């Protein structure tokens, strides 16, 4: 920025096509049109980015498409940041418009791009889950594991497609399953040792035949080996 001047090579004009936009859509489109008129005077390339297409109102999106088609050399890219659909396309398309030696940008409609993105995400998820399943210690932390995996191509691909939050959630789910499996196995081990414990603490059946569970438990607690067979939870 020499002498306080900013060199602008291109513009991205974002239009929210979801129901949750903070203003009336007609007002938003009118503002976008006025802004485009001013930007077009600069002779600098402009691309329309229709955002939140995963939550879009159909006629909002159609109006943006009509708005772009009525303008000379104005492209529109349909985007969903939440599903990472066409998020890079808007920039690559703008670069192609700036570079006169490149071919005309190919813009993929949202639904087609979404299907492609989901197919990539499904494959990446499968590979990432297999990678996470190599962790067998339920005490492992996300920070430690992510540092070990950060250079693995399957980890990097999943992070790029689905984001760190989903990766952390998938890891947490796996750790929870490991812990539950550990508890289940320990419970089975304890249950399998019960007959031997009862034989040790209550070898004389005639002694307990008329006792209920509470009375039998109190009798076992008096045995010297009780602490070796059971753990008393507070």
In short:
This protein has helices spanning about 25-40, 60-70, 90-100, 110-130, 140-150, 155-160, 165-200, 205-210, 215-220, 225-230, and strands at about 10-15, 45-50, 75-80. The protein is about 55% helix and about 5% strand.
Structure description:
It is a single chain. It is elongated and about 100 Å long. A 3-stranded parallel beta sheet has the order 1-2-3, with helices on both faces. The protein is mostly helical and 234 residues long. The chain folds into 3 domains: 2-108, Rossmann fold, CATH 3.40.50; 120-181, Arc Repressor Mutant, subunit A (Orthogonal Bundle), CATH 1.10.10; 194-229, no CATH class. It has 10 helices and 3 strands, in the order βαβαβαααααααα. The longest helix is centred in the C-terminal third of the chain and has 38 residues, at 164-201. The chain is 57% helix and 7% strand. Strand 1, helix 1 (25-40) and strand 2 (46-51) form a beta-alpha-beta unit.
What average pLDDT do the residues reach? 90
Q: Could you state the CATH homologous superfamily of the largest domain?
A: P-loop containing nucleotide triphosphate hydrolases
Q: What CATH first level of the largest domain would be assigned?
A: Alpha Beta
Largest sheet: 3 strands, parallel
Radius of gyration: 32 Å
Label the overall shape.
Answer: elongated
Q: Strand order, biggest sheet?
A: 1-2-3
- The helix fraction, in percent, is 55-70%
CATH fold description of the largest domain: Rossmann fold
């Amino acid at each position: 920025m020499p002498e306080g001047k900013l060199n602008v090579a291109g513009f991205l004009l974002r239009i929210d096509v979801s129901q949750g936009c903070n203003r009336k859509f007609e007002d938003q489109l009118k503002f976008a049109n006025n802004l485009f008129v001013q930007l077009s005077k600069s002779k600098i390339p402009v691309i329309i980015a229709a955002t939140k297409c995963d939550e879009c109102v159909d006629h909002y999106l159609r109006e943006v498409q009509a708005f772009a088609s009525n303008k000379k050399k104005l492209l529109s890219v349909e985007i969903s940041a939440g599903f990472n659909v066409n998020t890079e396309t808007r920039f690559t398309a703008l670069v192609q418009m700036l570079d006169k030696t490149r071919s005309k940008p190919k813009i993929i409609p949202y639904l087609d791009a979404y299907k492609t993105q989901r197919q990539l995400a499904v494959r990446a998820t499968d590979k990432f889950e297999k990678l996470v399943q190599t962790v067998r210690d339920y005490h492992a932390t996300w920070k430690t594991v992510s540092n070990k995996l950060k250079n693995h191509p399957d980890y990097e691909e999943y992070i790029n497609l689905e984001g760190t939050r989903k990766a952390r959630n998938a890891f947490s789910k796996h750790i929870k399953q490991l812990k539950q499996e550990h508890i289940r196995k320990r419970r089975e081990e304890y249950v399998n040792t019960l007959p031997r414990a009862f034989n040790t603490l209550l070898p004389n059946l005639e002694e307990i035949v008329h006792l209920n569970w509470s009375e039998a438990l109190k009798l076992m607690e008096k045995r010297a080996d009780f602490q070796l067979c059971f753990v008393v939870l507070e």
